[in-house]
Amino acid sequence: MGAESCSDSARGTGLPVLARQGVGIRSLACVPNSVEALRLGGRPRSATAATRREVAVIPKLAPGDVKGMAGTAVCSLERRALGKTGLVVSRICFGTLTMGPLQAKLSIKEGASLIRTAMDAGVNFIDTAELYGTYEYIREAISGRGGMHSRDRDSVVIASKSYDYTYEGMRQTVERALQSMGIDYIDIFLLHEQESALTLKGHQEALRYLARAREAGKVRAIGVSTHHVACVRAAAAMPEIDVIHPLLNRSGIGIADGTASDMLEAVREAHDAGKGVYSMKALGGGALLDDVEGSLGWVLAQPCVDSIAVGIKTLDELRMDLAVFEGRRPDDALRERTRQNKALIIEPWCTGCGTCVARCTHGALRIAPETGRAAVDTARCVLCGYCQAACPEFCMKVV
Ligand code: SF4
Ligand code: SF4
């Protein structure tokens, strides 16, 4: 498939039209709006700590800082058809978990600016979930230039997910997502953290609602997210499932029931069966940050992965990821700055209630008999931060 280019004025409508026409796009270059539109954070303000943090975390971009971001440059982010959904997505999907209240806690303005910058660089795919608490960031990012009916809405593919298993529960959740993001349809809605054919069966009613919503145009594609090889295999055999969002990294970190090879084989079969595949945790939730290029490169080299969701919370991470996805060599200083390891911190006021232990599907937590407090097995932890949301004492955080 050859490269296509789209003018700025075509950016909002070109992709969906091409997708509807069934045109496969392997590589598509976009001219960004303008250098000025890429500047982050707006005017520096003074006085508050929050403002000082905002300026510190997200400095303004220098023109031409990232290839494709200067007014006349052309980005080379590849785009691919996502299975048979008719959606065409950038190979990098902007994962919003890390910027939100479960992790970096960026302000809405900070997070939205980061998303906008990614969009201006050619990223057209954003991943969120009800659990992540990041709908407001997306709303702000896509409403900045004209609201939900603007061309910006149509030029971005949004995926969300939830744990609902009833018809009515899923209906309410989808409505909440639409309202919270200020949109009138969502591109992909997934069942969150599915494990097997059995758990999928237990979500039949939620799937029934999603199928109805797809018919009505509220949802364009239905999917599942999973850390389990067995679930990838089960979902691949279900005609109502359009998209699979599996955990995949070269070390197999976080795969609940197999190795990296097992997961890759299942993903390959699912992709061959026509499922759109966008993977997660290419960096092992942070455990593989010491070799971002090698870890992302391994997943990028898999033809069965249409897109890769990468959590982004700083401009440096965005720069680094764009460099890797565009096949450029990042400069050494940037590589060093992004080579930081994350960790799950458990504060000393943990009461040992065990709620987090039950929440962690990776078996990475236990109550240590010697302290009576939660303790993490770093070999199993994928640093998703989900346990943090469950802790009634607010004593867990991923940093
Ligand atoms: S311990 Fe917490 S952060 Fe680690 S995998 Fe389990 S839920 Fe995720
Ligand atoms: S949920 Fe919070 S308070 Fe309870 S054991 Fe886990 S860390 Fe401790």
Residues in helix, %: 25-40%
Number of domains: 2
What is the makeup of the main sheet? 8 strands, parallel, barrel
Mean pLDDT across residues: 82
Shape-level CATH architecture of the largest domain: Alpha-Beta Barrel
**CATH level 1 name of the largest domain:** Alpha Beta
Number of helices: 15
Give an overview in words.
- The chain has an eight-stranded parallel barrel with strand order 5-6-7-8-9-10-11-12, surrounded by six helices. A two-stranded parallel ribbon has the order 1-2.
- It has two domains: 3-337, Alpha-Beta Barrel (TIM Barrel), CATH 3.20.20; 344-398, Alpha-Beta Plaits.
- 33% of the residues lie in helices and 18% in strands.
- 49% of the residues are buried.
- The longest helix has 15 residues, at 167-181.
- It has 15 helices and 16 strands.
- The chain has 399 residues and is an alpha/beta fold.
- Helix 3 crosses helix 4, helix 6 (167-181) crosses helix 8 (204-216) and helix 9 packs parallel to helix 10.
- The protein is globular and about 55 Å long.
- The N and C termini lie far apart (41 Å).
- The protein has helices at 14-20, 49-57, 108-120, 135-143, 151-154, 167-181, 197-201, 204-216, 229-236, 260-272, 292-300, 315-325, 332-337, 355-359, 386-390; strands at 3-6, 27-30, 79-81, 88-90, 92-95, 125-127, 157-162, 186-194, 219-226, 243-246, 276-279, 307-311, 344-346, 365-368, 373-376, 396-398.
- Residues 344, 359-360, 362, 364-365, 376, 381-387, 398 line the site of one iron/sulfur cluster.
- Residues 346, 350-356, 373-374, 391, 393, 395-396 line the site of one iron/sulfur cluster.
